[in-house]
Amino acid sequence: MEEALKGTFPVDVVKNIFSNISSINTFHSQFLLPDLEKRMGEWESTPRLGDILQKLTPFLKMYAEYVKNFDKAMELLKQWTDRSLQFKAIIQDIQSQEACGCLTLQHHMLEPVQRVPRYEMLLKDYLKKLPQDDPDHQDAEKSLNIIAMAATHSNSAIRKSENLKKLLEIYEMLGEEEDIVNASNEFIKEGHILKLAARNTSAMERYLFLFNNMLLYCVPKFSLGGPKYTVRTRIGIEGMKVLGTTNEDYPHTFQVSGKERTLELQAFRKTIEIFHQKNETFKSASKDVLVSTAELGKRAPRWIRDNEVTMCMKCKESFNALTRRRHHCRACGYVVCWKCSDNKVALEYDSNKINKVCKDCYSILTGEEKAEDKKKGILEIEAAQFSGSSIMCGFLQYCEKNKPWGKVWCLIPEKEALVLYLYGAPQVSQTPCGREGMIGPHSSTNRAVHSNHH
């Protein structure tokens, strides 16, 4: 601010970058911290925190302004660092101070965004260990409700800040030479890869960084201060193609083809082993969950985990947060939608209490006939029919415009080599069912797809 007042750059720039951070600092240094320190000193006579927090937590709402302006502040900081050498020198001087702990200014600016959710987490832990009849319990619960309301304003900014933090880490690994710290850039995946040379087909170690808009193909370089890389090629996602290739000497190879360059790559052996190990785990989990008809309702099932499923395991409809939420059948453990779990029956293993069950288990346990399943469409052929005779198959991540990334099972059948089939996964296994769609030379479907295991 002193430099701004000298006329080096506009005062508004500093105010817009740091928002109301001075007010937040004043609140903590003059009110919250002194009160907490005083209470710690008299803890034996007054072992409580809820009264202090209930009085002061309403002021945490001031974080909402900082969080709201966070993205704009990051963009403005980057613009002025690139535009003004004097501004950049001031920032570097600040970062070189011992108090900064060798971290960038952007790293320190992330801390206020994450502060309120941390308070919420600490207070939840405090309440867990506090007896229900403790005099401080009521005040602590009221404080938690206030903090939770303040934390909701920070949640979306935290997701963005975590992505920005990762971008900063990559920026430092690339020697601070690549322009990747941008609010529009979203980090997706990174990992070691082998590059096959065109002349002698020898495999050379490389490293990939995948973002929502580009792929960075990097070469590792020697460094004593953590991993460092040099960018060899930047390939845009638009128009990029990933194709499986056949190489007897080098299995598990594939080709990444973009406008800027085409690369022939080979997955690391360790990556391949992890991929196969995961699939074996999913297959065994599928077997473990099955409960025989004779034991149905008499024995508690193992529940399928929510993150193993992308659609209802009965009707194959995709889940969403509002109209089709996840429910567990208490008889078989499958994850189903509300329509397929709109049945109740007494279960012997749960002392004959009434429980929610899927329609199939309801039919078995009550003896009533099943409702007829809907007729399968032309795009609902099961993946199992193709997986054994495919050129390439595996799990991929894909997204459509303005929708989150989701896991699908993809394969290229031998008889239709120019078509990529996408299957939503009722359960993550080698042969999920439920056709989502296909992408081919005559298809109008346009989906962004990237590999989840290469």
Automatic annotation (TrEMBL):
PROSITE patterns: DH_2 (PS50010), PH_DOMAIN (PS50003), ZF_FYVE (PS50178). InterPro entries: DBL_dom_sf, DH_dom, FYVE_RhoGEF_PH, PH-like_dom_sf, PH_domain, SOS1_NGEF_PH, Znf_FYVE, Znf_FYVE-rel. It comes from the Eukaryota. Residues 1-157 form the DH domain. Residues 186-312 form the PH domain. It holds the Pfam family RhoGEF. Transmembrane segments: none annotated. Keywords: Cytoplasm, Cytoskeleton, Guanine-nucleotide releasing factor, Metal-binding, Phosphoprotein, Repeat, Zinc, Zinc-finger. Residues 306-366 form the FYVE-type domain. It is found in: Cytoplasm, Cytoskeleton. GO terms for molecular function: guanyl-nucleotide exchange factor activity; zinc ion binding. One of its GO terms (cellular component) is cytoplasm. One of its GO terms (biological process) is filopodium assembly. CDD domains: FYVE_FGD1_2_4, RhoGEF. PANTHER family: FACIOGENITAL DYSPLASIA PROTEIN, FYVE, RHOGEF AND PH DOMAIN-CONTAINING PROTEIN 4. This is FYVE, RhoGEF and PH domain containing 4a. The gene is LOC115197421.
